[in-house]
Amino acid sequence: MLEAQNRRPARFITFEGGEGVGKSTQVKRLLSHLAEISVDAVRTREPGGTPKAEAVRSFILQGRSETWGAGAEAVLFAAARLDHVNELIAPNLAKGTWVISDRFSDSTRAYQGLTGGVDAKLIDALESLALDGHTPDLTIVLDMDPETAFQRVAQRAIEDGLTLTGDRFEKEELDWHRRLRDGFLDIARTNADRCVVLSADQAEDSLENEIWSLVQSRFPELQTGTDA
């Protein structure tokens, strides 16, 4: 059984979607399912994942890059992603550890490209440089109407006694978030072999079960204990 476990290919799964759709929660729940069947997996996020990338994350989400424009932000995200791939994603996949990331390159394409207006050729070039062939095996796009998503975030903040402030992108107008949603759906349609859109407008447990069923069906070796 141990030998079969070692033969399992390492998979790279990313979660995408707009603000407040519950990606972080579902990343944690998927990791729990993988741990239950003894699949080594690491959780990460973008921007971030490594010390250098986390520094870029802080700079951008604090709004310090906002006046630079979407093009400059796309370059910053690509720089962070390059370090993330080289220092965390590629080494873990190479040693057989699954990587589950809360956002990846599709977010740059949606936020700075389709929503921010950065030329697609620049986005393509930055993506090619940063990914170095490390395209996700599966991208789960969590979809929800932005107004509903923000109502959920606000309600949870009230329940937790928190003040809702928002980061660089959460502060954008509702119409901007609707265009962002359309951007992610467009990416999913264009990359139907890799992306699966799931409704986030359902109970967390139901969504968790739907995600786990999807992952098991996409990667049958999880059920057989051997390579598909």
- Outline: globular
Number of domains: 1
In terms of structural class, how would the helical and strand content be classed?
alpha/beta
Compressed to H and E, one letter per element, the order equals: HEHEHHEHHEHHEHH
Q: For the residues shown, what is the average pLDDT?
A: 89
CATH architecture: 3-Layer(aba) Sandwich
| CATH C-level category | Alpha Beta
Distance between the termini: 15 Å
Supply the CATH superfamily name: P-loop containing nucleotide triphosphate hydrolases
Strand percentage, roughly? Answer: 5-15%
Strand order of the largest sheet: 2-3-1-4-5
CATH topology: Rossmann fold
Binding site for ATP: 17-24
Keywords: ATP-binding, Kinase, Nucleotide biosynthesis, Nucleotide-binding, Transferase
Organism: Devosia crocina
Enzyme class: transferase
Description:
This protein is an alpha/beta fold and 228 residues long. The protein is 57% helix and 12% strand. It has 10 helices and 5 strands. The protein has a 5-stranded parallel β-sheet, sandwiched between helices. The radius of gyration is 18 Å and the shape is globular. The N terminus is likely disordered.
